[in-house]
Amino acid sequence: MTEEDRLEDMIVKTWGGCTLPIRPVGGPAGTAFLYNELLESTPDGDRVREWVLTAAGLTRGGLGEFRLRPELIEPAGAAADYLAVLEFDQSWSRRANVAAMPSGLLHDHAERKGWQWTMAQVADGVAARAEDLLVLSGEPHRAYALGHVTTEPGAPGEQRPLAVATSGVTRDPDGVVRWAGALPEGFTGAPVFLAQHRSGREFRLLCIGLIADGDRNPTVATFDTIRKMIDRLGAGATPGLWERVTGLLRRRPR
């Protein structure tokens, strides 16, 4: 097994449970994922807010859907195949090529239906900061995108398997971070991971952002941009925000 294979396995094992297939009805298929914004660390545990992140281009239209992955639902078999969302475009806030939505919509649906999520999240400590992104200049760096491919685009009950794509990322002369080459259909919105080498064989995996469009050599919206949007939303009276402390979720008082 190569080092690249080991990194792919680690990414799937650690964050394979944080993604959901997403699609505006009649629009392109993509991927969304959960992100935990760290608010504070206390003796009782870390207090975080949960967000759903994806590419802004996937959040247009009056009706959208999330595919509900059976392996992320407890008890097994309790959920339907998908969650249809009315007024889909109004559920999201957007900045540049990124869209964010409080995870309350997902948790409220599960509570009404009598089941719960077992999803993972991209934690704040894994999300790259501005200083981590300085490496993205000059030569491409190996990167990994974690997304849901399409098998029968637009078909009812379409299977959207989870897959890992590998390529290089670099910052072009205009300062835009890009993924080198094309990605499978369905990877728009997918989280992108980079291995930050330390000493010897030691490394740290970082989530540098998400695939922001479906073009060849697509833009990667990085977490410095994402955090600015999250900070603005968290400071306001955004409905549907959920906080987590030591594994327990609660709606933020308004």
Entry summary:
With 254 residues, the chain is mainly β. It has helices at residues 3-15, 104-113, 223-235, and strands at 19-24, 30-42, 45-55, 63-67, 73-74, 82-86, 93-95, 98-102, 116-117, 141-148, 162-171, 177-179, 191-197, 203-211, 220-222, 242-245, 248-251.
Oligomer: single chain
- What percentage of amino acids are in beta strands? 35-45%
Helix content: 10-25%
Number of DSSP-assigned strands? 17
The low-confidence parts are 246-254
Radius of gyration, CA atoms, in whole angstroms: 17 Å
Global morphology: globular
Major β-sheet, in short?
A: 9 strands, antiparallel
Q: What is the level 1 CATH name?
A: Mainly Beta
By DSSP (H or I, 4+ residues per run), the number of helices equals: 3
Category from helices, strands and their pairing: mainly beta
> What is the annotated CATH architecture?
Beta Barrel
Q: Summarize model confidence as the mean pLDDT.
A: 88
Order of helices and strands: HEEEEEEEEHEEEEEEEHEE
CATH topology: Thrombin, subunit H
**End-to-end separation:** 51 Å
How many separate structural domains?
1
